[in-house]
Specification:
Shape: globular
Structural class: alpha/beta
Order of helices and strands: EHEHEHEHHEHHEHHEHEH
Number of helices: 11
Largest sheet: 8 strands, parallel, barrel
Helix content: 40-55%
Bound molecules: phosphoenolpyruvate
Distance between the termini: 15 Å
Number of strands: 8
Strand content: 15-25%
Strand order of the largest sheet: 1-2-3-4-5-6-7-8
Radius of gyration: 17 Å
Oligomer: single chain
Length: 251
């Protein structure tokens, strides 16, 4: 059985004290979330050390939003997988569209980062998704297949146990425009098929595939009711504990 997950991506928001308050509020309400729904919070690097103390003993797991593509050394400003591990991180998001768009994150780099993350014992939330031009040109299936193949086809079925895929149509991120449940479901089913082609039906069945893009309490229920949607990667709405928890209660 694949896991249901709701993950919050705080992006570059909150100071450390604000982040601690936000996580405390999430932790306080986390017992209102069904036991079978996992919660992950992806916070800025500066926050991780303090936050790992706040969530101790709770069901909330900690994620970074990125990691370096090298193990250690002369890479000023970068944060390595072992550093993340050492502050209690269990996950890292990789390939978020903002990183692909603004920081030149390529699929080749993502292969390196995914390798390092898995070797360090971190799980990976790999983001894929098409932009508006690609959607309007009818290329969304091909774009998502290519992103999955370019990165995940370099890994094994065993590795897939530590990898979550997040489908995030770029045109829906932070725009208030959500993909309809049908639009999201058809891509999720397609991604599962692309995974099945390489890893077999069982691995594809067991892989958690999240939807991300203006997901909020008012639309989460319909999205999560789809057969191949196993939860959400939540941006804006994850900055309010009540909304984040309400989304996680939408199953
Ligand atoms: C995201 O950045 O991963 C995201 C889904 O953002 P939002 O929910 O704000 O659209």
């Amino acid at each position: 059985m694949r896991k249901k997950i709701v993950a919050g991506n705080w992006k570059m928001n909150t100071t450390v004290p604000e982040g601690i308050e936000l996580l405390k509020a999430v932790v306080a309400k986390s017992n209102e979330v069904p036991a079978e729904v996992g919660l992950i919070v992806a916070a800025p690097h500066t926050h991780l050390c303090c936050l790992s103390e706040v969530l101790e003993g709770s069901k909330v797991e900690l994620s970074a939003q990125n990691c370096a593509d090298h193990v250690s050394g002369a890479y000023t400003g970068e944060i390595s997988v072992n550093m993340l591990k050492s502050v209690g991180c269990q996950w890292t998001i990789l390939g978020h569209s903002e990183r692909r768009q603004y920081y030149g994150e390529t699929d080749e780099k993502l292969v390196e980062k995914t390798k390092l993350a898995l070797e360090a014992g971190l799980g990976v939330i790999l983001c894929v998704g098409e932009n508006l031009d690609e959607r309007e040109a009818g290329k969304h299936f091909d774009v998502c297949s290519a992103q999955i193949k370019n990165v995940l086809y370099n890994f094994s079925a065993e590795d897939m146990k530590k990898i979550i895929v997040a489908y995030e149509p770029v045109w829906a991120i932070g725009t208030g425009k959500t993909a309809t449940a049908e639009q999201a479901e058809e891509i999720h089913a397609h991604i599962r098929k692309v995974l099945a082609d390489k890893f077999g039906a069982q691995v594809a069945e067991d892989t958690t595939i999240l939807y991300g893009g203006s997901c909020k309490p008012s639309n989460a229920r319909e999205l999560f009711a789809q057969k191949d949607i196993d939860g959400g990667l939540i941006g804006g709405a994850a900055l309010k504990a009540d909304d984040f928890i309400a989304i996680a209660q939408s199953y």
